[in-house]
Specification:
The complex is a heterodimer of chains A (149) and B (427).
Chain A (H helix, E strand, L loop, with lengths): L6 H4 L16 E6 H12 L6 E6 L4 H9 L6 E7 L6 H12 L2 E7 L7 H8 L5 E5 L3 H9 L3
Parallel strand pairs in A: 1-2, 1-3, 3-4, 4-5
Chain B lengths: L3 H8 L6 H6 L3 E6 L11 E5 L2 E7 L5 E5 L13 E2 L4 E2 L6 E2 L5 E3 L17 E2 L1 E4 L2 E5 L22 E8 L3 H9 L4 H4 L3 H4 L9 H6 L4 E6 L3 E9 L5 E9 L3 E4 L7 E10 L2 E9 L7 H8 L27 H6 L9 H11 L16 H18 L9 H4 L4 E5 L5 H4 L16
Antiparallel strand pairs in B: 1-11, 2-3, 3-4, 4-9, 5-6, 6-7, 7-8, 10-11, 12-18, 13-14, 14-15, 15-16, 15-19, 16-17, 17-18
Classes of the chains: A alpha/beta (149), B alpha+beta (427).
Chain lengths: 149, 427
């Protein structure tokens, strides 16, 4: 047995160094579909630190390219969509994020059961490294804050 | 990172705090039934949610849980005499029944009725599934009795243990819903631990380290799905249940028993880690029970006569650097429960969440904080808390193989409900 007299003191953290242990991480929040875009817009209005907001609109090629190219400047990509949204942009987001070497967290807002979920998830699941199905759009803000925003 | 005021809301469970009010709306485990084994047995000190109480079983077998201190001079009633259907303070003989009502003040004339004016705060204490449960909230809002499946199976089908953890409940509980640490901290247990090894599903764990997570809200809490690749493009899913405020069910392995935890605040710097194992379809074997007593699976060995782990911070959890170096155990600490406790206690009694750097795989933890915070704030506005309804507690964890394009919550819907006589869905 490896016993130290200061074992108890060593396991406390009273004198933890009070300096930052990380740099700010930039997060790109991408709204996909009409509902997702609205959640992204509302979240963007909160002016969270290091969070930039974009809407993925496959119908606007130039804007879409700009959204995807910006991934090289961020540390995390968060995609938000709502039940019933048109999700064809999600795989593009994933592909661009992979090229940029960033993980994609998906948040799917579903307040109550809706029949379209199955198809939505078939698109979203392979488009995300981590998927959260939440009932409350406020989760987007809470998650961003917990992730350092 | 969690900001200071948000953190305080989550971790403080004393009287009058929002999270304390939330915890007080549930039946919570107070003691193992074995701690009050017979009428007139020694009373037991209990501290829950930063309130000190005394528990006893009176001469007729009735259970009582009340303020620890005599109303006369504040003596601890742990020193009391449990006799004649009451607990008598040894200082001046004041006696209390299981409701906390003072029934005798020897120095006062009986006819004065003085003792009727003295009553200690008390809470209900009921026995269910080998556990003594209490409800510390408003009596008029007392919920239905606990319906977790482990508490409803026969005594030979289950095994319960508890251990002291010297940390806030939240950092302990967050370990219980953080599936991503299992592949590191607990690696090795799948092949060696008698309560895990041999299950077919283990091979998926050991073959695919690129685990993907999905977090889905349930009525009473959360479902945390971890998926790994299985045969023919299918996914092997391990689905953990979290029921508010602090119950977890870990996905099963093969025909091994199901297990999980309760994380119950003692005060803001200590908690009880309750661990249960049960099998709804068969009795636990002697071999399984011996392994659990011996600290295998999620249980731990404790110092005899206490619920303090034998491996604890005063002995550096019996860290074995040679085992760590040789890869026998990833952390060098023996036993799943103590592997968790050692690291969670090392964060300090209350983790400094302002220094965390959470990542996307921590979304189970993030969502649990979100739901706890939301429920505590909603409760203050009169919204009933989630997780108190019997159907929200009659849940199971599950492990199963599913096609790639289905929502695990829907495809495993039946598997996630506890039904008497129905086997657990487990690979």
């Amino acid at each position: 047995m490896d016993m130290h007299s200061d074992a108890v003191a060593a396991s406390q953290v009273r004198h933890r160094i009070k300096l930052p242990n990380s740099r700010r991480r930039a997060i790109r929040l991408v709204g996909v579909g009409r509902g997702g875009a609205e959640v992204a817009r509302v979240t963007g209005a909160l002016m969270l630190q290091e969070v930039s907001v974009a809407v993925a609109d496959p119908g606007n090629a130039a804007a879409m390219v700009a959204v995807l190219q910006a991934f090289s400047e961020v540390d995390m990509v968060v995609v938000v969509a709502c039940a019933g949204d048109e999700l064809s942009a999600a795989p593009m987001v994933r592909q661009a994020a992979r090229l940029a070497g960033v993980l994609v967290t998906g948040i799917f807002i579903q307040d109550g059961p809706t029949p379209s979920t199955q198809g939505d998830l078939a698109i979203l699941r392979p488009s995300c490294d981590m998927l959260v199905i939440a009932s409350d759009p406020a989760y987007v803000r809470d998650m961003l804050v917990e992730l350092g925003a | 990172m969690t900001r200071r005021e948000q953190n305080e809301l989550l971790i403080q469970t004393g009287p009058g705090t929002p999270m304390g009010d939330l915890f007080r709306r549930y039946w919570i485990p107070a003691l193992l039934a074995e701690e009050l084994p017979e009428p007139d047995c020694p009373p037991v000190r209990v501290q829950l949610l930063s309130e000190r109480m005394i528990a006893f079983r009176d001469s007729s077998g009735t259970l009582g849980l009340m303020d620890e201190f005599c109303a006369h001079r504040g003596v601890s009633l742990w020193f009391g005499r449990n006799e004649g259907n009451g607990l008598r303070c040894p200082y001046h003989g004041w006696k209390y029944d299981t409701s906390g009502q003072c029934v005798d003040v020897p120095s006062e004339p009986v006819e004065s009725g003085y003792c009727k004016k003295i009553k200690l705060k008390s809470y209900p204490l009921i026995e269910r599934g080998g556990v003594l449960w209490t409800y510390m909230g408003p009596p008029e809002l007392q919920p239905p009795l606990p319906e977790y499946e482990f508490a409803t199976v026969g005594p030979k089908h289950r095994y319960m243990s508890k251990r002291l953890q010297e940390s806030n409940y939240l950092q302990a509980m967050e370990g219980g819903i953080d599936s991503s640490h299992v592949s590191f901290l607990h690696s090795g247990a799948l092949e060696r631990d008698p309560l895990f090894k041999g299950a077919k599903g283990n091979k998926y764990n050991l073959q695919d380290f690129q685990v993907k997570f999905e977090v889905v809200e349930s009525e009473g809490g959360l479902l945390i799905g971890a998926r790994r690749n299985a045969e023919e493009g299918h996914y092997y899913w391990r689905i953990t249940q979290w029921v508010m405020p602090c119950f977890t069910a870990i996905p099963p392995r093969g025909d091994h028993s199901i297990h999980g935890h309760f994380w119950i605040p003692i005060d803001d710097e200590n908690c009880w880690a309750w661990s249960y194992d049960y099998h709804p379809m068969r009795e636990l074997s002697d071999h399984e029970r011996e392994a659990m007593v011996d600290g295998k699976g999620i249980h731990v060995k404790t110092i005899p006569g206490t619920y303090i782990p034998l491996q604890n911070k005063t002995n550096d959890y019996l860290m074995d650097r040679a085992a760590q170096k040789a890869g026998i155990s990833y952390s060098g600490i023996e036993g799943i429960g103590i592997q968790d406790a050692s690291l969670q206690e090392s964060m300090g009694p209350i983790a400094d969440r302002s220094k965390e750097n959470l990542v996307s795989t921590d979304n189970g933890i993030i969502m649990a904080r979100h739901r706890l915070r939301k429920a505590a704030l909603a409760l203050a506005k009169g919204v009933p808390p989630p997780g108190v309804k019997p159907e929200e507690q009659r849940v199971r964890s599950a492990s199963l193989v599913l096609p790639p394009d289905v929502a695990f919550k829907d495809a495993a819907k039946e598997a996630l409900i506890a039904k008497e006589g129905v086997p657990v869905t487990s690979v």
